[in-house]
Design goal:
Layout: E1 4-5, E2 11-14, E3 23-28, E4 34-37, H1 51-54, E5 70-72, E6 79-81, H2 84-102, E7 107-111, H3 117-131, E8 136-138, H4 145-155, E9 173-177, H5 181-184, H6 189-197, E10 201-205, E11 218-220, H7 227-240, H8 246-252, E12 253-254, H9 256-264, H10 268-275, H11 279-291, E13 295-299, H12 301-304, H13 309-322, E14 332-335, E15 354-355, E16 359-360, H14 364-374, H15 388-393, E17 401-405, H16 409-412, H17 416-424, E18 428-433, E19 445-448, E20 457-460, E21 465-469, E22 473-474, H18 482-492, H19 503-514, H20 526-531, E23 537-538, E24 578-579, E25 598-603, H21 619-624, E26 630-632, H22 634-640, E27 647-652, E28 655-663, E29 671-675, E30 689-692, E31 699-700, E32 704-710
Parallel strand pairs: 7-8, 7-17, 9-10, 9-13, 10-11, 12-24, 13-14, 17-18, 18-19, 25-29, 26-28
Antiparallel strand pairs: 1-22, 2-3, 3-4, 5-6, 5-19, 15-16, 20-21, 21-23, 25-32, 27-28, 27-32, 30-31
Helix pairs in contact: 2-18, 3-18, 3-19, 4-13, 7-9, 7-10, 7-11, 7-13, 14-19
The structure holds iron/sulfur cluster.
């Protein structure tokens, strides 16, 4: 079925993929489909789009999208078409049975960082109110959770960027740690280019000389898993060279002595031995960072996806605090969140330990507030559940069923073969998706759901900018929205009210649930977003007239302007001071040895997005990046007798992956790199280690020990 444009006019909307949430226009194409047109007025990307965004409409009318529910036949064991009634009845029946036989916590729910705010909110409410289960988490746990935990710990609040992207070109120096944004979010590269054009300097920290690192004034290439030691070494030098900001430390922080002592135990020469980064480069970095009047540290998945990710980000935050580079104009620490709604997706209650408004599930006042909005007894709300990997690991054990929306863990989870085996061991698996993903292939029921351009919803980009993503085309018959799915299931499970299908109604409830919380959306409404300038509103945005019944921004109400810049007056901690946390270097969960002598690090490529469930099904993207590869240094390749293009097997203690070698001197000679977007024999996550960060429960995607073998590709 081909999607047809709802109107010939241009609909101002946003890309379905990454957290930049580039603005775009959609209009009727000449061939009957929809076309992307430039929307230069949206400030984040000013009309620029990467290939993923430009080709996003292809999946709307793709032959491979799902347009009818599928259920697994008891007779043949195969997925066969079914009616919506049959599919929803089957899911509701299984959820009821399992809950009755094994208790509510035997029902698991798994969400995604690509779900709109409304869907994330409704999914969390569905789990806690309808199922009464604590067993809900989402794939954002695999994305930026370490940065979120470190931000909460230091500043009392986590918003990816506490300042808008437009501040980046106006600062003096940026240290970009573990981000290849030239490939992951290309339109954002201009902020770094403009920084350098304005006389600022760019330092990139990455074990690979990526397209982003090539833009840098200084590229530091540490051994994977040692970013924490690197940050400690820089802080040591800051102290030793008298570059601390004592007045800032005194007036706006607490805990400096402990952090200082921890850093002083990491001598630069020692740090050089751990990281492989020469001391003169450490000194250059300190000079560039401290000479600038204002400077920033931005992290992404490199330092975050480690079993010490929270402490690693904490070490970079300590560097900012010690030099007075936080809570001041054009300075600070920020995280470049990855998934489309990675920011909003973590604020509205699909996380194992959180309620809407970014409230803690263990806080009695938060429970009481949200319970009142939901019309339930606070004591009926379950407590925190397992984190994403722990939940997946428990499938088939005490968790018997799983309802999964917006995620493809067969490709994206660590130790993926084990996760796949756990999914297969479930009593019952239900998946809502737009295509038959590798995870959906294992399901007992697959529900075909609407795509971004076929539904309206809000998303919150990496700056904390709440945006209205508008419906531009009608969905094919046979497809329903995730909100419709939750409504249908809730009704069958005795909760007919409380799960509206209309996203605006859901958002109205979300506003009330978030009111007074850290991520306060109560001053934002669909009307305000619809009538506004299209640039969105930054949270926190409290309602200046709560209970007035008036629309924020409507006649007679002075709207809260939103908060583009956080912490300028004080941090969000109880005493308003940012907290230093003493952190020390520790080894990765798995070090190299004689059997597994090489480090593996994983990441992304320009033409694919996350598990590739969508982008692998777009011809243009698939041609540009048709499969995985193993990037390795010529010295390593020569030692093993591996030629460029030859099949190479990468073997870890958890599995084996085979892909063509890409021999390049742009990577450290002790490290190989694999992108993780593909399933099958080239699945990088067959190799990765599920060791978890003790605070964020983030798995160690970025470093594990492997060996390489020449291989025949099957
Ligand atoms: Fe979409 Fe991100 Fe590409 Fe922008 S950078 S077009 S949001 S994938």
């Amino acid at each position: 079925t081909t999607a047809t444009p709802a109107a010939t006019a241009v609909t101002a909307t946003h890309c379905p993929y990454c957290a930049l949430q580039c603005g775009m226009g959609l209009t009727a194409g000449t061939g009957g489909g929809v076309e992307v047109v430039e929307r230069a007025s949206f400030p984040v990307n000013r009309g620029a789009l990467c290939g993923k965004g430009r080709t996003a409409p292809a999946l709307l009318s793709s032959r491979v999208r799902l347009t009818e529910p599928l259920v697994r036949s008891h007779a043949t064991g195969k997925l066969v078409p079914a009616s919506w009634e049959e599919a929803l009845d089957r899911i509701a029946g299984e959820l009821s049975r399992v809950r009755e036989e094994h208790g509510a916590d035997a029902c698991g729910v798994f969400g995604g960082g690509g779900l709109t705010n409304e869907k994330a909110y409704a999914l969390g409410k569905f789990a806690r109110v309808v199922l009464g289960t604590s067993q809900i988490d989402y794939n954002g746990r695999f994305c930026m959770s370490s940065a979120a935990a470190a931000g909460q710990r230091a500043f009392g609040l986590d918003r990816g960027l506490p300042f808008p992207l437009e501040d980046i070109p106006r600062t003096g120096c940026v240290i970009l740690v573990g981000s290849n944004l030239a490939e992951t979010m290309p339109p954002a590269l201009r902020y770094l280019t403009e920084l350098r054009e304005n006389g600022g300097t760019l330092i990139v920290v990455d074990p690979r000389r990526t397209r982003t690192a090539e833009q840098a004034d200084l590229h530091l290439a540490p051994r994977p898993g040692t970013d924490l030691a690197l940050a400690l070494g820089l802080l040591h030098l800051v102290v030793a060279e008298g570059r601390t900001d004592e007045a800032f430390i005194e007036e706006r922080t607490s805990g400096w002595e402990g952090a200082r002592a921890a850093a002083m135990a990491h001598w630069p020469e020692h740090v050089e031995r751990i990281t492989g980064v020469p001391v003169p480069q450490l000194r250059d970095a300190v000079r560039m960072f401290c000479d600038a009047e204002a400077s920033m540290v931005l992290t992404a998945r490199g330092p975050e996806q480690q079993s010490k990710g929270t402490d690693t980000v904490g070490a970079w935050i300590n560097l900012c605090l010690a030099t007075g580079r936080a809570g001041r104009p054009l300075s600070g620490y920020g995280c470049l969140t990855g998934q489309g709604n990675g920011q909003g997706g973590r604020e509205h209650g699909q996380k194992a330990d959180q309620l809407p408004g970014y409230r803690k599930l263990t806080d009695p006042a938060a429970r009481a507030h949200v319970a009142e909005v939901w019309g339930v007894d606070p004591d009926s709300l379950p407590g925190p559940g397992r984190s994403a990997y722990e939940l997946l690991d428990a499938l088939g054990g005490d968790v018997k069923t799983l309802l999964l929306m917006g995620s493809n863990p067969v490709v994206s989870a660590p130790r993926a073969a084990h996760v796949e085996e756990r999914l297969r061991s479930l009593d019952f698996l239900a998946v809502a998706d737009v295509v038959l993903s590798e995870t959906a292939e294992l399901a007992d029921v697959v529900l075909p759901v609407t795509q971004w351009a076929e539904e309206t919803g809000t998303v919150t980009n990496l700056e904390g900018r709440v945006l209205l993503r508008r419906r531009a085309v009608s969905a094919p018959g046979g497809v329903r929205s995730d909100l419709d799915v939750l409504h249908g299931l809730a009704a069958r499970l005795g909760h007919g009210k409380g799960f509206p299908v209309d996203p605006e109604q859901v958002f109205e409830e979300l506003r009330r649930a978030s009111a007074g919380g850290p991520a306060d959306y109560s001053g934002i409404s669909y009307e305000r977003l619809r009538e506004g300038d299209g640039e969105g509103v930054f949270w926190p945005c409290p309602d200046p007239a709560p209970g007035s019944g008036q629309v924020p921004g409507g006649a007679g109400v002075v709207p809260h302007p939103g908060t583009p810049r956080l912490f300028l007056e004080g941090f969000a901690t109880e005493d308003g001071r940012a907290r230093f946390v003493p952190v020390v270097h520790r080894a990765a969960a798995e070090e190299t040895d004689a059997e597994y002598p090489v480090l593996l690090t994983t990441g992304r490529v320009l033409a694919q997005y996350q598990s590739g469930a969508q982008t692998r099904r777009v011809d243009e993207l698939n041609s540009a990046a048709p499969g995985p590869f193993v990037e390795l240094h010529p010295r390593l390749a020569a030692g093993l007798g591996i030629a460029d293009g030859e099949a190479v097997a990468v073997v870890s203690r958890r599995g084996r992956a085979v892909a063509p070698a890409r021999v390049t001197s742009s990577i450290r000679s002790d490290t190989v790199f694999m992108p993780f977007h593909w399933p099958g024999e080239g699945r990088a996550n067959s190799l990765t280690h599920p060791a978890l960060d003790p605070v964020s429960r983030m798995p160690e995607f970025k470093v594990c020990a492997v060996r390489l073998e020449r291989a025949e590709r099957s």
